[in-house]
Structures are given as C-alpha cells and as structure tokens.
Structure to design on (176 residues):
C-alpha cells in the first residue's frame, strides 16, 4: 500500500539566514529582534519579511512604492518595503504590523481600527495603520488635512473611517 502524503497546514519556516556564504552578511533588526541576511543584498525588504521571516502582515500591492500596502516603519518613519533593499536597513530598526504593539495585545491604532470598523476588504489596512503610526509619532493631534496627506491608497474608500480611527487613537495615546 502506498504511503499517504502528509499535508502541512502551516508553512515550514525558512531560517533567517539564507542564500550562499559568498554573499556579505547583513545584520538586521526587525520588531526588536536581531536577524542576519546573507542573500542578495538588493532583495526588497517586502520579500525578506514575507518569504524569509514569514511575517505576512505587510502586503504586496503595486511593487513600485505607490499604493502603500507594504508600508513599514524604519526608525519610526513610514517607508515602502517593496522598494527598499535590505542592504539599506543595516543599523536601522524595522517595525512591521506584527511588531507595532510591542508587548501589548494591540496598539491604540489597531484597537481604534477595530472600534471604528475601518476594514472593508482589509488588504491595505496594515499599511494604513503603519502610515498612521508615523503620522501620530510626528503629530500627536493631527487635523483632517494632516490625515489626508497620508499617501496610502484604499480601493474600498474607507477614508472617513480611517480618519475617525486615527483621531480615536490620538485621543487614547494623549491620555497615556
């Protein structure tokens, strides 16, 4: 009788050190943890996060840095992961949606997103939240105009709810 094949329900993790030993080793810091990459130094951060580290909250949208679905924080500032090579990140702290809350269950923005029922399809939401985190870092009490300058796209058009969630999170963060 032939052996039954085993179907894995979760992807088998790939170690954070990948590729050949001929490549230079790049130290990276992502969500407060140290990693080393010795693969192609021009690999976009998005692919390193998703394919190597299996952090899939950061989404691929356009691949040219326009839509913002891939937004992460680099040293607290919003940056498009699809056009940022890993070699540019050595010595910098990268924060993804998975690491935004730190040790808490949810970041105030994530909680506000839930309370305001922001997500419709949800695809752009991680990038929206990361861009909002950058905005609130530099401007703890943003106006509607300030929020409107966030350049992330939402194909479902949930901008009014995004605005409400950012203001709710700003209020919560101001009380802490």
């Amino acid at each position: 009788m032939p052996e039954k094949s085993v179907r894995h329900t979760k992807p088998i993790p790939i170690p954070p050190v990948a590729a050949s030993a001929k490549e230079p080793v790049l130290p990276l810091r992502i969500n407060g943890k140290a990693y080393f990459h010795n693969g192609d130094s021009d690999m976009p951060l998005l692919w390193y996060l998703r394919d190597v580290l299996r952090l899939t909250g950061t989404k691929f949208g356009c691949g040219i840095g326009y839509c913002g679905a891939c937004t992460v924080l680099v040293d607290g500032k919003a940056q498009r992961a699809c056009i940022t090579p890993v070699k540019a990140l050595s010595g910098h702290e990268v924060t993804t949606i998975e690491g935004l809350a730190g040790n808490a269950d949810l970041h105030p923005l994530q909680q506000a997103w839930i309370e305001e029922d922001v997500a419709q399809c949800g695809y752009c939401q991680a990038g929206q939240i990361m861009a909002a985190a950058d905005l609130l870092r530099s401007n703890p009490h943003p106006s509607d105009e300030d929020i409107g300058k966030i350049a992330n796209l939402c194909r479902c058009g949930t901008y009014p709810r995004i605005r409400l969630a950012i203001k709710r999170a700003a209020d919560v963060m101001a009380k802490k």
